[in-house]
Design a protein that fits this description.
six-stranded mixed β-sheet; about 20% strand; about 270 residues; alpha/beta; 9 helices; 10 strands; globular
């Protein structure tokens, strides 16, 4: 399982029995995950399922309690710096330096990744224009809206041209125009061979963008595979959605995690 793998032929992400405990609580419980290169991969689950904890372990922000992680064919525990040079991360809490301008934040990030000053300046200028953040160059990050911070965080994750992009709820708090810009950009990135690993509660966006998904609940992986095949009933058996009329991702998700409400059940009847 942990034999040396030729990096160029390896999957983008692999986990082997990945576990994370916090005291007596097991947040991630024996997850075996495989993400192919160039996939637009959706990592789904209800609140508290273990999604953000898993992403933190995949990106080296949190040490696993057990199991191992390979990213681009490299053991994350043995080669953390090499892995981190080749990935981009937009975490849920963003972690931006708010007393810098957007351009200064990108300059700092680019130089940290080893880009030359000229490369950093040119890529930063292009990214700020693409994200429509170049209109007020003296504005500090602390004055940005939440959506603007999301776009700046994505720009920082892209400046070194990563091979994998990890996105934890990138569309949360983003308006429709910014969301359209981000979606179009992410589709172009996967078309160029970059792997995108996305968590989102907005299932309509996942359904439109992702080619493959995995669903985690209570720390355990319950489904993984190509989205079209899963929605056609391969993983859920016969019944609604099997065959040529696939269910929506929302219906499939609810069915898999067991969260469907019985038909006809009254909800808060005292409000009626």
């Amino acid at each position: 399982m942990n034999n040396p793998v030729e990096p160029g032929s390896a999957p983008a992400v692999e986990t082997f029995g990945l576990v994370r405990r916090f005291g007596d609580f097991t947040a991630v419980d024996g997850v075996n995950l495989r993400v192919g290169r160039g996939q637009f991969f959706g990592f789904l689950g209800p609140n508290g399922a273990g999604k953000s904890t898993t992403i933190k372990m995949l990106t080296g922000l949190l040490e696993p309690t057990g199991g191992s992680v390979r990213v681009l064919g490299r053991d994350l525990a043995k080669e953390p710096l090499e892995v981190k040079r080749r990935i981009g991360v937009v975490p849920e809490d963003l972690n931006l330096f708010e007393r810098l301008t957007g351009a200064e934040m990108l300059t700092f990030t680019g130089r940290m990744y080893g880009l030359t000053r000229e490369e950093t300046r040119e890529r930063g200028r292009e990214l700020l224009a693409l994200m429509e953040l170049d209109g007020e160059p003296r504005k500090l990050v602390v004055e940005y809206s939440h959506g603007m911070k999301k776009k700046l965080s994505l720009a920082c994750a892209l400046i070194h041209r990563p091979e994998i992009l990890f996105l934890d709820e990138p569309f949360e708090g983003v308006d429709a125009l910014a969301s359209r810009t981000l979606k179009d950009l992410l589709l172009k990135l996967t078309a160029r061979g970059i792997t995108v690993f996305l968590t989102s509660h907005v299932l309509e966006i996942v359904e439109r963008l992702c080619t493959h998904i995995a669903i985690i609940t209570q720390g355990r992986l319950v489904v993984e595979g190509a989205l079209d095949e899963l929605r056609r009933g391969i993983a859920v058996g016969e019944g609604d959605g099997a065959g040529d009329n696939p269910v929506s991702l929302e219906d499939y998700f609810i069915r898999v995690i067991g969260g469907a409400r019985p038909a006809g059940e009254d909800v808060l009847p005292w409000l009626a």
